[in-house]
């Protein structure tokens, strides 16, 4: 996929830990599968075990390597999430636009993240299964964030909302969560907001690109977590923060590969 | 996954401390059905890391549930923050305070284990640089003295007399040689042990090398002995000083030990648990084992099972149960022969930058330092145990910039030990920080754990009876204790049975989709 197979140039590369949260069956794993493999499986089995995948996202000035943690299948116990969002720089909270209860659950996750995760965590609220609504095609262009600027939650969604003011019931529109409701909530809470379809691919890459753009430079430098100070105290020589990192790959002859320490 | 009771579990692991989490990692590709529960609402057990608020909640839990934790007598002290200006305590989540700030020697078996299991890339390792001794200076005032921990250091030291340098060099060379010969001799029966005999460190240094008294405590600090030089056996000390020396330069110049960013053992625990979660293990926090009973082999050939009642009211069946004493129901516990030590965690309003000099050209900036206070430096008798303070800079991610975290420990438990640590913290601030530096917040507790015997090689293996794998208590050592790896391997072998193939322990390929280049 174009977004992630960017040339391996000398652009700085940073790892970003991203945790995927949301009610069962909203399509969390499908979103990641679309992003990582550009693939979609109809009637995908519930994920057994938690998935861990990585994917690169190439920005003009840097490459972001997402480490994606999927709580897949274990939502019921809510016990993986605390470990996953610890030191995560980004969270993708997913709901299903055809299922209002899933937005309620998503709001719980957002509240928990705001209470427990790193203070600087970037949270994106994502309404998935757009293909089941009448906005399936229009939304593709409209919710697209403008090039080169951080998408504000409401960007483009006003237009989407217009089209869905008068839902055409005869057309089999399964939408139950109005865009406006979710986007207003996202704006209030300072979240990135997208409606996506893992099935058609609409907006999927955009979500990850928007997150990559929204991660503060300072948190990239110091690695994970925004709770800790960034940069180095002057007393330790004023060297960049990366200098405290020990690369286990440095053992023996210098064959350390790029990215080994991540 | 509707109900835990629906699954025939192969293994139920109780507790997410380091031992259980490394076992989780070991079982992550085994194909076994593993249920991993923890009675606590957090990961890490005795190796957890906390924000300030979580630490305060933990204090209540420890004090209210006496006997159910390997901790006692916990308390929090918080400055009033009313003082004008100066650094104030930051928000709760700006801190990640570790109950297990142990340092990891480059030669520890933990490192190759994390590497062969491919989880090291999820961890960020940082260097522990200098060792310091706090002791009275020439003019009677207390001062910090940097322990010459390598040949280069000894050479460059301007405090040592030429004679002392020569003596130290001879001692270090001797240790190096015994290492070589024991390597050649193959096997553990090292010539070192025979040669050192059954004497104290003091006696050994004096009689064999004529090392001057003033160098005894610096050498003691390199082995992180929690007893005085007089009460530390030479065998124990020498093997640990050897470990210190041979670890230098393994992963870069100027340091030999490491710490894990974002909370030490807690990070390693979570990496182990994540690996098992990715491998299909099911995680349930806030859920412990209430009671346990053995079920006989049933008629349809299903092997014998253990029935567990969980605190979330579910009843499950499992072939094996694993846990430390504090993670098993009272009836399944074994007697605990534990030592108690006093520990404290202090957040201070100074970066104490002078403790973290870069120890070699081109080496990483150290984020950790060790400060040892011999008994005498704290007004105690010469043979009283030293206080150690592991100092972590804000680069560890444990506190905000401009502050530092001091992890104090002494082998005297209770208020006497806490008073010694407090005195050591005050002296350290006086010596290494500006006059305004102060403690902003501190957590004090007694920790129970495996006796820090001054004997070597007393590996505690797991206690396996009736398919209950009882893990020994955590080590109270200030450096990661490699016997933990042996413990985990024993537990893994017990569970895997005939499928346990020695060289496959903790050796995995990268998972598909992860870290593809």
TrEMBL record, chain A:
Q: Highest taxon of the source?
A: Eukaryota
Disordered, as annotated region: 138-178, 219-262
Coiled coil: which residue ranges?
none
Listed GO molecular functions?
A: GTP binding; GTPase activity
Which SMART domains would you find in this protein's record?
A: RAB (SM00175), RAN (SM00176), RAS (SM00173), RHO (SM00174)
Q: Which Pfam families match?
A: Ras
According to the UniProt entry, which residue ranges have a biased composition of type Acidic residues?
A: 155-168
Recite the UniProt keywords alphabetically. Nucleotide-binding
NCBIfam families per record? small_GTP (TIGR00231)
**Listed name of the protein:** Rab GTPase Vps21/Ypt51
For this protein's source organism, the top of the classification is: Eukaryota, Fungi, Dikarya, Ascomycota, Pezizomycotina
Automatic annotation (TrEMBL), chain B:
Q: Which terms are listed as keywords in the entry?
A: Transferase
| Entry's family note | Belongs to the Rab GDI family.
Name listed for the protein in its UniProt record: Rab proteins geranylgeranyltransferase
Gene3D superfamilies from the entry?
A: FAD/NAD(P)-binding domain (3.50.50.60), Guanine Nucleotide Dissociation Inhibitor, domain 1 (1.10.405.10), Guanine Nucleotide Dissociation Inhibitor, domain 2 (3.30.519.10)
Against InterPro entries, the record matches this protein to: FAD/NAD-bd_sf (IPR036188), GDP_dissociation_inhibitor (IPR018203), Mrs6 (IPR017230)
Q: Which GO terms describe its cellular component?
A: cytosol; nucleus; Rab-protein geranylgeranyltransferase complex
The Gene Ontology terms for molecular function here are:
GDP-dissociation inhibitor activity; transferase activity
Question: PANTHER family attached here?
Answer: CHM, RAB ESCORT PROTEIN 1, RAB GDP-DISSOCIATION INHIBITOR
Q: Which GO terms describe its biological process?
A: small GTPase-mediated signal transduction; vesicle-mediated transport
Q: Does the keyword Transferase apply?
A: yes
Question: What's the superkingdom here?
Answer: Eukaryota
């Amino acid at each position: 996929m174009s977004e992630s197979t960017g040339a391996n140039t000398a652009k700085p590369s940073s790892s970003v830990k991203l945790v995927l949260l949301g009610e069962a069956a909203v399509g969390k794993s499908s979103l990641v599968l679309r992003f990582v493999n550009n693939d979609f499986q109809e009637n995908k089995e519930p994920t057994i075990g938690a998935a861990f995948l990585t994917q690169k996202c190439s920005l003009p000035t840097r490459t972001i390597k997402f480490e994606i943690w999927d709580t897949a299948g274990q939502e019921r116990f809510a016990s993986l999430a605390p470990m996953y969002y610890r030191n995560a720089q980004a969270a993708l909270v997913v709901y299903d636009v055809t299922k209002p209860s899933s937005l309620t659950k998503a709001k719980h996750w957002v509240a928990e993240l705001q209470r427990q995760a790193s203070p600087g965590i970037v949270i994106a609220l994502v309404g998935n299964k757009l293909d089941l609504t009448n906005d399936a095609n229009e939304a593709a262009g409209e919710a697209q964030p403008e090039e080169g600027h951080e998408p504000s939650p409401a960007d483009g969604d006003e237009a989407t909302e217009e089209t869905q003011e008068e839902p055409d019931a005869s057309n089999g529109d399964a939408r139950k969560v109005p865009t406006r409701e979710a986007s207003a909530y996202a704006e209030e809470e300072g979240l990135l907001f997208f409606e996506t379809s893992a099935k058609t691919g609409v907006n999927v890459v955009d979500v990850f690109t928007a997150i990559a753009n929204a991660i503060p430079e300072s948190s990239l430098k110091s690695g994970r977590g925004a709770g800790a100070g960034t940069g180095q105290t002057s007393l330790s020589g004023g060297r960049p923060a990366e200098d405290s990192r020990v690369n286990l790959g440095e053992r023996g002859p210098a064959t350390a590969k790029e990215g080994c320490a991540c | 996954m509707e109900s835990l009771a629906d699954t025939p579990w192969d293994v139920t692991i109780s507790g997410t401390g380091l031992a259980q989490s490394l076992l989780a990692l070991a079982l992550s590709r085994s194909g076994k059905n593993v249920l991993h529960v923890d009675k606590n609402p957090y990961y890490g057990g005795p190796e957890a890391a906390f924000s300030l608020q979580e630490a305060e909640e933990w204090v209540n839990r420890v004090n209210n549930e006496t006997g159910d934790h390997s901790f006692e007598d916990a308390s929090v002290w918080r400055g009033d923050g009313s003082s004008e200006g100066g650094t104030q305590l930051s928000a709760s989540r700006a801190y990640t305070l570790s109950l297990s700030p142990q340092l990891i020697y480059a030669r520890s078996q933990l490192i190759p284990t994390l590497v062969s299991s491919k989880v090291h890339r999820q961890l960020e390792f940082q260097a522990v640089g200098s060792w310091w001794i706090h002791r009275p200076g020439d003019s009677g005032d207390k001062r910090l003295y940097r322990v010459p921990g390598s040949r280069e250091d000894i050479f460059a030291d301007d405090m040592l007399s030429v004679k002392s340098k020569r003596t130290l060099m001879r001692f270090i060379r001797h240790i190096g040689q015994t290492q070589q010969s024991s390597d050649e001799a193959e096997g553990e029966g090292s010539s070192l042990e025979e040669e050192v005999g059954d004497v104290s460190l003091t006696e050994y240094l004096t009689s064999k090398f004529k090392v001057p008294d003033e160098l005894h405590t610096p050498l003691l600090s390199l082995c992180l002995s929690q007893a005085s030089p007089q009460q530390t056996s030479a065998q124990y000390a020498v093997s640990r000083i050897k470990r210190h020396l041979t670890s230098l330069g393994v992963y870069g110049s100027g340091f030999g030990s490491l710490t894990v960013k974002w909370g030490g053992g807690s990070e390693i625990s979570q990496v182990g648990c994540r690996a098992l979660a990715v491998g299909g293990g099911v995680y349930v926090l806030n859920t412990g084992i209430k009671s346990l009973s053995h079920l006989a082999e049933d008629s349809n050939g299903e092997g014998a099972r253990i029935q567990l009642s969980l605190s979330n009211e579910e009843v499950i069946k499992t072939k094996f149960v694993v846990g430390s004493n504090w993670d098993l129901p009272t009836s399944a516990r074994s007697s605990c022969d534990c030592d108690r030590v006093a520990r404290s965690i202090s957040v201070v309003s100074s970066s104490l930058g002078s403790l973290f000099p870069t120890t070699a050209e081109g080496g990483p900036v150290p984020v950790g330092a060790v400060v040892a206070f011999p008994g005498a430096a704290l007004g105690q008798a010469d043979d009283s145990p030293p206080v150690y303070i592991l100092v972590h800079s804000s680069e560890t991610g444990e506190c905000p910039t401009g502050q530092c975290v001091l992890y104090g420990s002494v082998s005297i438990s209770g208020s006497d030990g806490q008073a010694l640590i407090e005195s050591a913290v005050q002296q350290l601030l006086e010596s290494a920080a500006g006059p305004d530096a102060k403690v902003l917040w501190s957590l004090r507790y007694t920790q129970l754990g495996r006796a820090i015997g001054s004997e070597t090689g007393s590996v505690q293996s797991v206690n396996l009876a009736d398919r209950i794998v009882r893990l020994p208590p955590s080590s109270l050592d200030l450096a990661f204790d490699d016997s933990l790896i042996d413990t985990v391997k024993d537990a893994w072998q017990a569970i895997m049975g005939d499928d346990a193939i020695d060289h496959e322990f903790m050796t995995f390929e990268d998972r598909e989709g992860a870290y593809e280049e």
